[in-house]
Structures are given as C-alpha cells and as structure tokens.
Amino acid sequence: MAKDEASGLSAEERAAVKQRAKELREQEKAGKSRAAGEAAVREAIAALEPEDRELAEGLDRVVHEVAPELVPKTYYGMPGYANGEGKIVVFLQPAKKFKTRYATIGFEDRAKLDDGDLWPVGFAVRAWTAAVEREVTELVRRAVG
Question: Among positive and negative, which fits the CA dihedral 110, 114, 119, 122?
C-alpha cells in the first residue's frame, strides 16, 4: 500500500474517503431508510471479491438473525450495520479493498463489548467457518446487548 507523500494516504485510503463522502450524501437523501441501507449493503457485498463476499454474506446473515434492530448501511464502502441513531456498530473491512492478507470484522465504540480496561474491537478473519460463525454470533449478540 504505497502512500502519497502529499496526503499521507494510499490510493485505496483516498478512494475510501471519497466513497464515504458519497455515502453520507446518499444517506442524507435517504434518511434512515432500512430499504435504502439494505440495497446499498447488498450492492457493496456483490462488488466484493469472492473470498471477501463470503465473509460479508456470513456477517450479514448473523446480523439479520441476532440483531435485526441494526440497520444495514455502507461505511467507507464496506458493509456495516448501525444502531437506531444511525451510528455504525459493526462492519466488515474486506481484505482486498486495502490489499491486506485478511479481512477484519470491526466494532465501533457503540458496541457493548466492554470487558474491564482492555478488550478487542477488531477481529481478523480469513474464512467463514462454523466456528467463526458461532464466535461472530456471540460478539454481535454482546455488541447490541
């Protein structure tokens, strides 16, 4: 990921920032429409490379089953899920988007994962397995609990 000396951002990071600005404009027009959010997330998932798409589809399935109150919406072009205030709780950062060796399931500060003075908020994931699904299901359940 080569950085541009002038901005300090890689081409992928600059593209993500532009994507986020576009998302915010679109979300402003759509309001808190679940249908608009679901369409945007489905479109974002469909655009992913096959390995990342499988992970995104798994996370999407878990969120719909465990936390239907979360509203799908894109987050820097990535599939994300927001609380009633429109703030992202959980999202998937695809590996291919930033040319990393693994995707990340991330939780923002609204997720209720607090556990003492130190707890993880990002989880590397390389494949969607039954074990991964069980762990992500529990994390999402705790995050909205």
Answer: negative
